[in-house]
Amino acid sequence: MSSFLYTVSSFFILDNKGERVISKYYNNDFDNLQKQRAFEKKVFDKTSKVNFGGEITLLDNYLIVYKAFSNIIIYMIGDSDQNEIALLYVLNSFVDTLQNLFENSQINKKLILDGINYTLLTLDEIIDGGVIMESDSTVVADRVGIKLPENDDLEESINKTVTSVKEQFFSFLR
Amino acid sequence: MGKFGKKDDDESEFLFENLDKGQVVQEKRAFNESPIHPRKCSLVISQFLYLLSRGDTFTKKEATDIFFAATKLFQSKDIPLRRLMYLLLKELSSISDDAIIVISSLTKDMTHKIELYRANAIRILCKITDSSILPQIERYFKQSIVEKDPHVSSAALVSSIHLLKVSPEIVKRWGNEVQEAISNKSNMVQYHALALLHRIKQHDRLAVIKLVSNLIKNSLRSPYAQSYLIRCCVEIIEESNTEDRIFREYIESCLRSKNDMVAYEAARSICSFKNVSAKEINSAVGVLQNFLNSTKPTLRFAAVRTLNKLAQTNPTAVVPCNLDMENLITDSNRSIATLAITTLLKVGNESNVERLIKQIANFLGDINDEFKIVVVDAITSLSQKFPKKHKHLIIFLNKILRDEGSLQLKQATLDAILTVVNNIPESKEIALTELCDYIEDCDFQDLTVQILHLIGQEGPLTSSPAQYMRYIYNRVLLDSGIIRAAAVTSIAKFGLLYEPMRDKVIILLQRCLLDEDDEVRDRAILYLRLFKEDDIHYLSKILMDDVPVPTVNMQKSLEVYLHNGDFSEPFDIATVSTVVETAQSPMIGDGKSPFATGSKKSESNVTSPKASGSAANDQEGPESYGTKLSAIPQFSGYGKLLKSSEFIELTETETEYVVNCVKHVFKEHIVFQFNVTNTLNEQQLDNVSVKMVPSDPKLLKYECSIPIDALPYGEPQPCYVAIRYNPANGYPLCSFSNTLKFKVREIDPSTNQPEEQGYDDQYSLERMEIVPKDFLNRAYVGNFVEEWKAISEDNQLVQTFSLVGVKTIDEAVKQIVKTLGMATAEKSEVVQPKAMKHILYLSGKSLSNQLIYVRARMKLDQSQTNTDVELTIKSDSEELNEFVISAFN
């Protein structure tokens, strides 16, 4: 059995024509762009059929867990003997975090691309080399949507104060 | 938030989708501006990241340039920009040169008070270090692992997991820190620490057992850690045969977890165990049963997939879920529905299978062809389990055949029907009736032809053959040429196999004489003539016998025959290879297994449900060897190649040098072709030859040896040894001890060229024999039984012997066929399952084209551990009979 640890073998978002929006491969199963595209096409062909039903399937020894939105589908791919529910959890973390960051706007292609920095950072915070880094979407959203610390940079403000004091001092001397 | 500046909505989508790499690469200069504009730089980084994730490739130079430009941003104090910069550096670190340069900036960040800096810096550090640098920055990892902040600690732990592949020795030193991290308050840290610790100790089984037993008692909170721990327990139980119950108990306790992932991991683990108590499996199945009724497709899928697997090993355990799975047959997710059906069919029993089929039939209209094929396959396997239900199965399959559908689906369905008919003779009549109905309205020419073939084959043998004639003749009246031709043949078969109809058949055939299609007329004329001459023997030969060789090979051989233009001898079908040849030459092989060059595909196609398995001998086409050997000057005077043996392995396939041999027999010579493969990439072999020492030197004379000049790694080449024998003194049946001789030259790794100096070496090979089979060819006879009777018993030789240790008739048949290398006749190679006795017919011929007939009567002896054989050989030469029998000495 493959390891539980390397939960995700690849991740991609395809648009409603099956074209790649973004993708990330965590191992060398598909080691060049052609193979990746061919795989994505196969996955899309199987999962985009209207009468297929949604969320999960098995294809060529990969588990495919996915979620369809108005004009994109988000895919989380794992080895065939991976825990299906673990994959679903990762996908949910990703989607929930985006909802959180985009303040519950409808997820669609435009939103993903306009906020590409958030999309990619979210992915980076959730998965590291196939390993789940963090699953709690509020924690992930915090790490991506970085609030500025209260005293942004103490040194700088001190420096500024010192400078202005100096200036005042010198002008006083004059 | 989430927008770059005040760009218009359409424009921004446009901006990203049509990004041009060249243009964006130029924009990296934004990083050099002073002061840094965080928003502008963020946009540029986002563009780079987007291009990378879209699949655009950057050259090493481009990547390096961007990487270095981005390092300028370490000066910025804008946290969102820094976060993006880290991601960009991480992504580029593997393509860019000299990424090591940022180590000092990163180690500086490791002491920064902002956690986000430390967490991300360490993730990049792990990507750019190797074993030589790691010791210098080791302390940052150790520090970070024990940090309280979960972001930093998790980042350090996950990075260490990756580093374990690069520098395992160093990471293993951090065991204490990792142990400490397990008690971190964060769930994720706990999980990562457990995984790393387990991996560090992986090769020390006792340490793993100790670690796992401790953690079981510690009651971990993280669901991921629990799932991981379950896998560890499974591993321990499977590998160490431990008597300790705690591992099983832990898994069982996880079944009650509120977290679906954990409960499922526990359930599927229990289902995978080889030894499992009824209590354990019942509680596991109970969890899965709950999942079957979940609203979440993934849970239903997970459960039904696990049950499907379990149904193979333990069908009774799955039965309690039958009702729940029946509800899933109409699941909107097709994968779930498929799994449910196949599982149900696996655990189905005589009483519910009928209802099940009805249920599936009800929703057939809603599903696509691809899925219907899955159903058809499942139904086919069902027919083997419940032969009594054949009627329902056939009707069901016919329904699919008649509904709308692709040719692929219809072909699969027809194949399924043929399989059922073959396995369950009682199903024949109902299947034929249904199929007759179907061809009245069938859109696919191919299928109609196949069905007509089947009706012709089986129809005459049913209780009332006459009923089918109307359907067949309708095709003659209504369909296209190719179908009419098939129908004519089918009609003729009725005349042949069912005598009462012969007159009627002749009338029908006469009506076809004016057909506009040549093929139809030709067939009708031929059959009519044979009927009128009452030549039943020949008629049966052309109507009922399958072509005993692959049609492709037949075509090739015929083309060669015509091309050669020598028609003094008639074309002999025995010279056609039975092996389906692939494009690659069998002479050289692919270096792995010589058999890989010719996949042993039986010539049976869908039109002949009773596959004739006469491809009993893996003989390569002599014509391809013949041409190649005659091109070698030393052998050009040996005359026509009479017979080539199959490959004989003289080494194990996993050894340094792999050698197999083919024996080529000529009128007075035998050429041994040794295919040699050098599997050592650090060596080249020169002057490679095989030394053969015969057990009886008087029988033969050494002729010549052709060595291989140079044999590099991985390219198989042949070397040859030729001997001469005098056929007047009998064939040289003896054995040889063989030694591979060669000169080794080491490959210089710096130049990849072999060194000047080498040394002589040798390698012993397996012994090899010359056996009677090497001088016997296959021959095909139309009607073995008649030919057999025609030869007087004066010309026969009978011998009885026992095949010791051969416990089944099937095995005995295979052994006899293999020993004699002759063709099987009358489909006698097909043995009824569990048969206690059997008669096998073989036909062959000597190298001088004398026909040989062999009848082998065999039966299992009382102990059922040996097979007794009575072998009768008929030919026109006593000597030849003796020679054949000697194959069993």
Automatic annotation (TrEMBL), chain A:
The keyword Aminoacyl-tRNA synthetase does not apply. InterPro entries: AP_mu_sigma_su (IPR022775), Coatomer_zeta (IPR039652), Longin-like_dom_sf (IPR011012). It is a peripheral membrane protein. The coatomer is a cytosolic protein complex that binds to dilysine motifs and reversibly associates with Golgi non-clathrin-coated vesicles, which further mediate biosynthetic protein transport from the ER, via the Golgi up to the trans Golgi network. Coatomer complex is required for budding from Golgi membranes, and is essential for the retrograde Golgi-to-ER transport of dilysine-tagged proteins. The zeta subunit may be involved in regulating the coat assembly and, hence, the rate of biosynthetic protein transport due to its association-dissociation properties with the coatomer complex. One of its GO terms (cellular component) is Golgi membrane. It is found in: Cytoplasmic vesicle, COPI-coated vesicle membrane; Golgi apparatus membrane. This is Zeta-coat protein. Keywords: Cytoplasm, Cytoplasmic vesicle, ER-Golgi transport, Golgi apparatus, Membrane, Protein transport, Transport. Residues 8-145 form the AP complex mu/sigma subunit domain. Belongs to the adaptor complexes small subunit family. It comes from Dictyostelium purpureum (Slime mold). Oligomeric complex that consists of at least the alpha, beta, beta', gamma, delta, epsilon and zeta subunits. GO terms for biological process: intra-Golgi vesicle-mediated transport; intracellular protein transport; retrograde vesicle-mediated transport, Golgi to endoplasmic reticulum. Its main location: membrane.
From TrEMBL, chain B:
Residues 24-534 form the Clathrin/coatomer adaptor adaptin-like N-terminal domain. SUPFAM superfamilies: ARM repeat, Clathrin adaptor appendage domain, Subdomain of clathrin and coatomer appendage domain. Residues 774-887 form the Coatomer subunit gamma C-terminal domain. Residues 587-626 are annotated as: Disordered. It is found in: Cytoplasm; Golgi apparatus membrane; Cytoplasmic vesicle, COPI-coated vesicle membrane. InterPro entries: ARM-like, ARM-type_fold, Clathrin/coatomer_adapt-like_N, Clathrin_app_Ig-like_sf, Coatomer/calthrin_app_sub_C, Coatomer_g_Cpla, Coatomer_gsu, Coatomer_gsu_app_Ig-like_dom. It holds the Pfam family COP-gamma_platf. Keywords: Cytoplasm, Cytoplasmic vesicle, ER-Golgi transport, Golgi apparatus, Membrane, Protein transport, Repeat, Transport. It comes from the Eukaryota. GO terms for biological process: endoplasmic reticulum to Golgi vesicle-mediated transport; intra-Golgi vesicle-mediated transport; intracellular protein transport; protein secretion. One of its GO terms (cellular component) is endoplasmic reticulum-Golgi intermediate compartment. The keyword S-adenosyl-L-methionine does not apply. The coatomer is a cytosolic protein complex that binds to dilysine motifs and reversibly associates with Golgi non-clathrin-coated vesicles, which further mediate biosynthetic protein transport from the ER, via the Golgi up to the trans Golgi network. Coatomer complex is required for budding from Golgi membranes, and is essential for the retrograde Golgi-to-ER transport of dilysine-tagged proteins. This is Coatomer subunit gamma.
